[in-house]
Amino acid sequence: MVNNKEITVVVSNTFSPLEINRMQKECPDYVTFYATDENNPDMDLLMQADIIIGFFTPEAVSQCPRLQWLQLTVVGFEKYILPGITPRQATITNARGAFGQEVSEHMFAVLLSLLKKLEIYRDNQTKHVWHDEGMVRTLTNATVLVVGAGSIGTAFAQLCSALGAHCIGFRRHIPDDITPFEKVTTLDHLHEYVGQADVVASFLPYSEETTGLFNSDFFTAMKHGSYFLNGGRGNSVVLHDLVSALIDHHLAGAGLDVFVHEPLSADSELWDVPHLIVTPHIAGNIRGDFHLYEAAEKTTDLVCANLRAWFVHEPLTNLIR
């Protein structure tokens, strides 16, 4: 904890002046706030920070020797715990729980677009083609596997179940309240259910254990004509295997918002794969911007609660280390 006076807080200017003012009100008088851009920060300012609030690059954070606490405004923290990035003495917290609505609604929209062939009709529109693309699908009575049934996965399942889908969740620990899922189990049971799923949606966080989880064997085990979505981490999907499953028409469609290598190169094969919707990792917060006002509000609420806790030496929410 910071015990000395004249504490400097540097916050991302993705937050509005009103939101930053809310944060300031949670702090003692000896705390001074400064705002700077995440993409092009004032490094002289950032290097003086005792507390950083935002999604500044790991390289920028690594140059902040005074840092005592890094409050990330995203969920992903993996690069910030690598050796030589965040100073050893610094506490790290993330924004887990703030993006359930934002990411789930985005991936739900992708799923509905695939089910109703909207991406095909959009392609037809750009070509000025009036053509009936035939039968479409519904979520009513569909079986949806949500792999990574945390706050985002649960919000996604709520949307699917509202349209009549039967949702099964997979996570490390099974909660007492499994609503809106009909069943929640651990990831080691995923193979038992994959063959009956109409949709598999992944919201897994990064981990070495799940790298390459969604590979050729997995996609082959999926029901013919089913759909795959990834709004979690890119490392979990073997892209070549997914592309093969789509080209062979084993899968009816897929939607990806996350990738190991970002941005995708202009010559990536993914741009031209049929029945694949690609979005540029914008389902949740990105560096330099919020895409949904409600997500900014929830993130501000979280930051304010942690600021209150920090200055009275109480436990922080979403503590990473």
Structural class: alpha/beta
Q: Tell me the overall shape.
A: elongated
- As laid out across the biggest beta sheet, the strand order is 8-7-6-9-10-11-12
Query: How much beta, percentage-wise?
Result: 15-25%
CATH topology of the largest domain: Rossmann fold
The CATH architecture assignment of the largest domain turns out to be 3-Layer(aba) Sandwich
Contiguous runs where pLDDT drops below 50 for at least 5 residues: none
Spatial extent as radius of gyration: 21 Å
Distance between the termini: 13 Å
The CATH first-level class of the largest domain comes to: Alpha Beta
Helix content: 25-40%
> CATH superfamily name of the largest domain?
NAD(P)-binding Rossmann-like Domain
Number of domains: 2
Number of strands: 12
Report mean pLDDT, rounded to a whole number. 96
Q: Describe the sheet with the most strands.
A: 7 strands, parallel
**Secondary-structure element string:** EHEHEHEEHHEHEEEHEHEEH
Contiguous helical run count: 9
Describe the structure.
The chain is an alpha/beta fold. The protein has two domains: 7-98 and 289-311, NAD(P)-binding Rossmann-like Domain (Rossmann fold, 3-Layer(aba) Sandwich), CATH 3.40.50; 100-278, NAD(P)-binding Rossmann-like Domain (Rossmann fold, 3-Layer(aba) Sandwich), CATH 3.40.50.720. Helices cover 27% and strands 17% of the residues. Helix 1 packs parallel to helix 9 (293-311) and helix 4 (100-115) packs across helix 6. The protein is elongated.
